[in-house]
Design brief:
The protein is of the alpha/beta class. It is about 35% helix and about 15% strand. A 5-stranded parallel sheet has the order 4-5-6-3-7. A two-stranded antiparallel ribbon has the order 1-2. The chain binds adenosine-5'-triphosphate and magnesium ion.
Length: about 250
């Protein structure tokens, strides 16, 4: 049985179809279609903050904030995560939400991606909704707007009162690739967390943790080649790992 990295994770949709066989079917009776367990990109997404390798600064700050929430002393400012695609921003927000919301994660965390309706009208509705009292057992709701560079200027503007904490009972988290796309006044109201390309050593650790979740084995040369070709981007590294696994 393969352990999944995203056990209990919030997985709004499979992001990729890069599949690889994880375990050969061994004890299947008769002519039944073998139910091969497969691993996909999502299976490698770390669920907990402490399992996110390669981003020591950002993760240390998120852990500190989470501690402050848990001991009841703070409501963090709006989080603004930035860094290249596939670097781990969504992973970190979900892990932070899991950490502070615990059992209320499913009910108190919402994620709005670029393809969701984020018209100014819808934004206003979401923000109005976010002012409802938090659910029992949760310190607040967490509302995550991914890829905020795709928001229209009007929708971006609609976020302002929420980000400024105007009467809200929700914590907002925002993510973008390029911080320069975020208006300065908005940036200055946020805890800004930069996600940088992972060092080769960090990437080797990520791959070393990922590999046992698959059925294939790669030699040091193959691992070194992935580390070189992924340019410090975990999504690239996992994609390459799955490709190499197909060839192994
Ligand atoms: N530190 C990490 N350790 C292991 N895998 C990781 C790590 N960070 C990210 N990943 C892998 O990379 C994939 C992409 O991460 P994620 O979706 O968080 O990136 P992102 O920064 O939000 O990208 P985008 O800008 O495209 O939204 C995840 O599915 C996960 O498999
Ligand atoms: Mg993302």
């Amino acid at each position: 049985m393969i352990a999944c990295a995203n056990e209990g994770a919030h997985v709004p949709g499979r992001e990729t179809r890069a599949w690889a066989t994880a375990m050969p079917p061994s004890d299947l009776p008769g002519k039944e279609t073998p139910s091969v367990r497969r691993v996909s990109m999502e299976d490698f997404r770390p669920a907990r903050l402490q399992d996110i390798l390669g981003q020591p600064d950002a993760i240390a700050r998120l852990l500190r904030l989470a501690r402050g929430v848990r001991n009841g002393s703070i409501v963090p400012p709006t989080l603004l995560l930035h860094g290249p695609p596939g670097i781990g921003k969504t992973t970190a927000v979900r892990a932070f939400a899991r950490e502070v919301l615990s059992d209320e994660f499913e009910n108190s965390f919402s994620e709005l991606k670029a393809f969701d309706d984020r018209s100014p009208r819808r934004m206003a509705e979401i923000i109005l909704n976010s002012r409802r009292p938090p659910l029992r057992g949760a310190p607040f709701r967490i509302i995550f707007f991914d890829e905020i560079e795709t928001l229209s200027p009007e929708s971006m503007n609609a976020l302002r009162p929420a980000v400024e904490g105007e009467g809200g009972t929700s914590l907002y988290a925002l993510a973008c690739n390029d911080i320069r796309d975020v208006p300065k006044p908005l940036q200055s109201r946020c805890t800004v967390l930069e996600f940088r390309p992972v060092s080769p050593e960090g990437m080797r650790q990520i791959l070393a943790r990922a590999l046992p979740r698959t059925s294939f084995r790669l030699d040091d040369l193959a691992i070194a080649s992935i580390v070189e070709r992924c340019h410090g981007i975990p999504r690239e590294a996992i994609k390459l790992l799955l490709e190499e696994g197909g060839a192994a």
